[in-house]
Amino acid sequence: MKAVRLTLVCHALTHAQKTGCLPRPEDGILALEQPPVSAGPAVQVLSAPERRACETAAFLSAQARVEPALADCDLGCWQGLSLKQLQAAHPQALSEWLENPDSTPHGGESFAQLCQRVAVWLAAFDTPGEWLAVTHPMVIRAVLVQLLGCPMSAHQRIDVLPLSRLELSFAGQWRLRLG
Q: So where does this one cross the membrane (predicted)?
């Protein structure tokens, strides 16, 4: 069995991240001081469907393919709002959402639902070779929670910075690759 090497790449910095707002699908990335190194010709590139992921993936490969399973968590009516706005207007709902992975006070997708979506995608992803997948902080947190088998509440303790990478390999089971 030939191994799968999958590197998840967090999209580049956005204005929403810089200003403490929750993301919207149409958010683009800020100008990059140093563009990420492009993927080699043998590396296949996937991208979440949101603009910020597609723009980041374009720096890595002209042939990036959109993968819907890598989409960010749907934050419903909270998209684009700042955390300060939510703390002022909906403190109990925000607290519930942060503490309970099954919570959806915004009317979108819960973190538990995101974890399930990511788990299904990882279970089906078995194409050998080198892969880069540009996605979002919450998706990368969901992958880590699934891979390590830790409580979903642990995702609140994981920081995923813009352009950070998480390397995985698969040869019968998914493994985290530290380098």
A: none
Helix (H), strand (E), coil (C) string for 70-138: HCCCCCHHHCCCEHHHHHHHCHHHHHHHHHCCCCCCCCCCCHHHHHHHHHHHHHHCCCCEEEEEEECHH
With H, G, I as helix, E, B as strand and everything else as coil, classify residue 38: coil
What's the total number of domains in the chain? Answer: 1
Show Cβ contacts of residue 173 under 8 Å, excluding neighbours closer than 6 positions.
Answer: none
Q: Which residues contact 42 (CB under 8 A, 6 or more apart)?
A: 129, 130
Contact 70, 135 (CB under 8 A): yes
- Residue 99 inside a domain? The answer is no
Spatial separation of the C-alpha atoms in residues 85 and 92, rounded to whole Å: 13
What's the CATH number where 148 sits?
3.40.50.1240
Q: Which domain holds residue 158?
A: 4-74+109-177
Model pLDDT for residues 67-112, shown as the tens digit of each residue: 999 999 999 999 999 999 999 999 999 999 999 999 999 999 999 9
